[in-house]
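Entry for beta-D-fucopyranose complex. Fields follow.
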Amino acid sequence: MTPLLNDTVTKHGELPSASALTTLSKDFVWGVATSAYQIEGGADAGGRGPSIWDTFAHTPGKTRNGDHGDIACDHYHRWPQDLELIRSLEVDAYRFSVAWPRVQAAGAGTWNAQGLDFYDRLVDQMLAHGLQPHVTLYHWDLPQALQETGGWANRDTAFRFAAYAEAVARRLGDRVASIATHNEPWCTAVLGHQTGQFAPGFRDEAMAVQVSHHLLLSHGLAMQAMRAAGVQAPLGIVLNHSSATPASSDPADVALAHTLYAGFVRWYMDPLFLGHYPQDPGLTIYPEVHPGDMELIAAPMDFLGVNYYTRFWASASAAPAPRQLGATDMGWEIYPDGLYELLTGLHRDYKLPPIYITENGMAEADRLEATPLGSQRVHDPRRIDFVRRHLEALARARDTGVDIRGYFYWSLMDNFEWDSGYSKRFGLVHVDYETQRRTPKDSAYWYRELIRTTRSLATQINHKEAQPWQL
Ligand code: FCB
């Protein structure tokens, strides 16, 4: 059974407003995103070494149902079909990550030619399909060998990362559309080292703060190494951001909103764009910083990737958020206006490079249904509504002058959702993990229809601009 989008099926659900569609028709990149550990599988294949996520997921009690990424979506073996699937979505771009332990099993020393070849072929095939490759170097799968020497709590890991970044960028940097150093360093620092929810699973706030600095330092060192190597691709980082709404005008709620925003957004934005950590009465622990670190971290970037899923509701008395649009299957409030608030706020507070929305999407308890014709479908109207509303918020931000160049839906297909295992489905494409069969959901058809619509609008707009005498 072919997993491609059927050409005869078209629109499901309302498209964004006419004005949003017009805004999103001009020089805008449409994409889908995944990450290595969440889809690849092939854990022992082709000379890959273990990562901290292999270790964590195989430790009893750490993930839902003991799920792990040994096989995941088996993308390591099925990548040619998966790229065909992406092409059939008619997107412009695909964001994926390189697994460090696949290209350097121990995180230092020998490079694994088979691993580098895997990504090389993937990139070449994307280009053959007319897809822009957008690479992320670190989407949380640190080689386990580096964890044995302290992982991100050890400053030396930042230097190992820079060497890895340079090696991958030298290999792929002539053909990819962008290279991001890290995906969501906040998650690595806080979920990995403070709450223990993610690998490597520590519960130590001071360690988490120091890790955040080493992650930022590793970004700066990697940028320096890639620039020195003459890498042509645009270079940047991907951050997870949220707006923060005080529950009331009570000073305690307002102060909490400031602290949450400072710890989540400004903790990364200020070092990267202003060269220092933010000050806030609620932030009490600061990392050890060596002379020269902040200059490295604040070196100019070519783009910023922003991942947006929900907002912070800041209530000192723990009053619940109103959740007017409900919540996703992750329990995250659906709050599209937060994307507008966030983007316009960033634009106000920093001198930004071009922005990509590198992730946005929702988990839903999707079910396969048999159609009368004997095929299968997944009816996911809430996801369509979610994306439509977020794109309208994005378009409004773009209209006010925020330089947003593209949008990547998270995720191409259902995959290993970290500590939630396979229980949460974010994909435009459904994955049956028993058979590895892929079934495009209604939202996949809708997304393709949206892209087709903006392209035809773009042609009309360009046509008008090219022939003003016809206006
Ligand atoms: C982001 C991660 C991504 C996925 C989505 C739901 O924080 O970058 O891997 O888990 O959330």
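NOTE: Residues 35, 38, 183-184, 187, 240, 307, 359, 410, 417-418, 426 surround beta-D-fucopyranose (CB under 6 Å).
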